[in-house]
Every structure is written in C-alpha cells, then in structure tokens.
Design goal:
Elements: E1 12-14, E2 17-18, E3 30-32, H1 35-39, H2 47-59, H3 81-112, H4 117-142, E4 147-148, H5 150-156, E5 159-161, H6 164-191, H7 204-224, H8 232-255, H9 257-262, H10 267-282, E6 288-289, H11 295-316, H12 321-344, E7 348-349, H13 354-357
Parallel strand pairs: 2-4, 3-5
Antiparallel strand pairs: 1-2, 6-7
C-alpha cells in the first residue's frame, strides 16, 4: 500500500500558489523609507570601509552557490502531516523575510542611483543576494507542491514606513540575527546529520555569509552617521529594536517548537543562544545592549507566550467580535506590562567596552 502525504490545510490563490499568511505583529514586515533623506547622507566619515564592502559585494562569493543539486531530486512525501505543515510555514516565513529585503534594497538602489551612486550600488547588489535567497526558498516550497506568488505578495502587503536611521537599526539586526540563526542550524546539523530532513540546510553555511556581509554594511553605514549611535536617543532606540527583534523571534519560534524538534533542536535553547550571540554582536556598534542573562528576561517572555496562547484560543472560539475583544483585553494588557518592564530593564553600556564584546 502506497502512503499518500496528508495535504496541508492551506488556502490557495490558484493551483499550487499558497495564500500568504495573515499579517500579524509577529509576521515579517515590508518597509519603505524617506528616500530623499537617505540620498543626502554623507558617507565620508567611513567611506573607506563602505567602499571595501562594495568590492566584496561585487566579488559575489555566492554566485554559483544557490544551485539545486541531485539531493533535491526525490519525493518528499515522507515528510507528512504536521511536520510537513510546519516545514511549509518555515519556508514561507523565510521566503517572505528574504523577499521583503529584496524589495526594500531594490527600491533603494533605484531611487538613489543618480543621487548617491555608492549607496545605490550596494543596495542593488544586496537585493541580488536577497532575490537568490527568496527564489531558492520558494523553489523549495514547490517540492511540497506549493509556492508563493511573489507578485501578489508585492501588491497585497502593507508597507511600514521607517525613517532611514530606523531602517538601519532594523535591517542591521535582521541581517545579524539571520547570520546566527543560519550558522547555528548548520553547525548543529553538521554534527548531527541524521536530523537533516531536507537538503536546504546544507546551504546555510555560505548563505549566512551573505547575511553577515549585509550586516557589516549596515554597521559601516551606522559608523558613517555618528549621531545615530552616540547619544541618549540612540541608546533608547537601540534598546527598542533589540527587544523587538529578540521578542518577536522568541515568541514565533516557541510557538513552532515542534518544527525545531524535527531538526533535533530545542526552540528555547536555540533562541537563547542566537539572542546571546546577536546581542554580543550588536555591541560592536550599538551604544547599549540588553541584559539577556537576567532570569526575568525570559520569564517575562514566557508570560507573553501564555498570553498569546489565550489570544489564539479566543480567536478560535465562537462569539461576537466585541465580546472576543473584552476576553482578549487582560492578555493584551499583560503583554504590554511585560514589554514595558523588559524595555525598562537596565541595559549594558558598551560604548566604552567595544573590545570586550567583539
């Protein structure tokens, strides 16, 4: 008897094209910015480093890396049921995040071409990298008889406006946490090949070097704009973006702990390691980092996890929208208290400790 894989419970735009996941506060976001303000940026304070990174982008170390080999040429029907569903979710979230970077960088390259050609070329070359990543992930989804309609995604998603300095904070952290996520999974599966259920993870070592170079570029940009990293305002915003990125990842990954178990990873321990390393890396440029070693840092996030479970349970129940909102209100308020408390925790000043946190 031949086992037929359970068809994932997903809506389709058309045959084989998955309806994109509903936008929530925890889903990957699409961004836009003030292009004129960015075009006027003076890079002279750190121009040498930026030009060196531009040469690295031109070299294109991964030009021939993202090519599917014969390991993909097989049926994946044995990845079935909930594991299949979780794996498709992972591919979709990853593809959406990479495609978001592609759209932002491509638009920056187009808008800055005549006004700031060095920045424009850097963004164009980074958009090339992100397009490869998104395409590779979307092709992986097709192994599970689904894909994302990226044209539909471009038009249907809402775009969040961030001023240039906030774009730099957010994308720097996104690229650096991406590096630590990819390299941690790669190293684990290198040590435990029996847990490598799909060949895409074998590409993560080179893949994460793209993320690292992109992060280094935003590090260099921040250094070229001292006002973005050397005053009270920058300390407050650094705390905000670190907390937002860490909390979003932790809440998402713990919700999908079963997926990480299929790779032989504990979602909480994996995230704590990635957060620790990203926090240390951020200390190279941010004036403060978070004290993530405090026991109450994660205990407060665990309260948010329980609150989110309650919110999902209310969403799944019957009832009128106003009644549901009232039932959700205590969880919303509790989440707000946790995040405010986390933000107000005393951070670690690193503007005088760069050598120690490198």
């Amino acid at each position: 008897m031949v086992n037929t894989p359970t068809k994932p419970n997903v809506e389709e735009l058309h045959a084989g094209a998955k309806v994109p996941a509903k936008e929530t506060i925890l889903t990957p976001r699409f961004y836009t910015t003030d292009f004129d303000e960015m075009a006027k940026m003076d890079l002279s304070v750190n121009e040498e480093e930026i030009l060196a990174l531009l040469e690295e982008f031109r070299t294109d170390y991964n030009q021939k890396h993202f090519v599917r080999d014969d390991k993909f040429a097989q049926s994946w029907d044995h990845i079935d049921g909930e594991t299949r569903q979780l794996f498709i979710e992972f591919l979709e979230r990853s593809c959406t995040a990479e495609f978001s970077g592609f759209l932002l960088y491509k638009e920056l390259g187009r808008r800055l071409k005549d006004k700031n050609p060095v920045l424009a070329e850097c963004f164009n070359l980074m958009s090339r990298d992100e397009a490869r990543h998104a395409g590779f992930l979307n092709k992986a989804m097709s192994d599970f008889s689904l894909s994302l309609d990226l044209g539909f995604l471009t038009k249907s998603r809402s775009y969040t406006f961030f001023k240039p300095k906030f774009i730099f904070y957010a994308t720097y952290l996104s690229e650096k946490i991406g590096y630590w996520r990819y390299i941690t999974i790669f190293r684990h599966l290198e040590a435990h090949p029996e847990d490598c259920i799909y060949p895409i993870f074998k590409f993560f070592e080179n893949w994460c070097q793209d993320e690292n170079r992109h992060g280094d570029f935003f590090d260099a940009i921040l250094r070229s704009q001292p006002a973005f990293v050397n005053n009270l305002e920058s300390r407050l915003w650094s705390r905000f973006f670190l907390l937002s990125v860490f909390a979003t990842m932790y809440l998402n990954d713990v919700q999908r702990a079963k997926f990480y178990r299929t790779l032989g990873l504990d979602a909480r321990e994996y995230d704590k390691y990635v957060i620790k390393k990203t926090n240390e890396t951020a200390g190279r440029i941010f004036p403060v980092i978070l004290d993530v070693e405090r026991p109450d840092f994660y205990s407060r996030l665990e309260v948010c996890i329980k609150n989110n479970e309650k919110l999902r349970a209310v969403d799944a129940s019957n009832g009128l929208a106003p009644v549901k909102f009232l039932r959700k209100l205590p969880a919303y308020l509790s989440n707000a208290v946790q995040f405010i408390s986390l933000y107000l925790m005393k951070p670690i000043r690193v503007d005088h400790l760069h050598g120690a946190v490198r």
